Request: fold
Amino acid sequence: MAFIASIALTATPGKAGELVKSALLRMRYGTALSESAGVLLIERLTDLIAIVLFAVVGMSFFTGFGHYVLLSVVLLPPLVLFLGKFPLRNVLLAAQARSERSKKFIAGLLRLLDTAGSLLRPKPFIIGSLFALIAWSCEVMALYLIMLQLLPDLLIAPWVAFGVFGLATIVGVLVLLPGGVGGFEATAIFLLIQFGATPADAAIVTIVFRSITLWLMSFIGLIVLILWLVVNRNKNVR
Reply:
């Protein structure tokens, strides 16, 4: 329920608003913010891997360097796991021992690091990445079904939806606007036009898709968020 409630704030730069999940879990269960933030950090990381992989599909058809980009994606998970072994914990422990003033803050960082580190172990990291791929693939298939209905004459293959979604999402993140608004739409429309859609049809497909997957879901999340706050208003855990 906390996950669904957080969707109310998904239309924020980099989905930063989903940090509300940490606040909701603390309100109901007393979960430390530093611990739940570690989970969110790895969640965003696995999301990034999934989206980059989808974008590679698109780039492989727009450029002649798709195999090089694919190689970089194949090497990304091992790189992440390697960085997860970086002895940052030792650095923080040394800093904590030297400074009394920042001891509490560093303790929080250490809890976050421990949580994230446990999820960066090969098994949980691979499972989390697979779940991210499945979840985002469902959103891509929604785009593909909309394309089939509104662009029936183009005979667009499923990989097109993966490429359009991946590239548009990355651009949306880079523009740093809430929900990638503007960047996602402009990129998706441009790419659909490259595959033969008229500007008007490309715009309609993009608007319908975003209305369902961003704005409708945000509205549902807002309802669940309000219900969560009402039900748990007297259950704050200290």
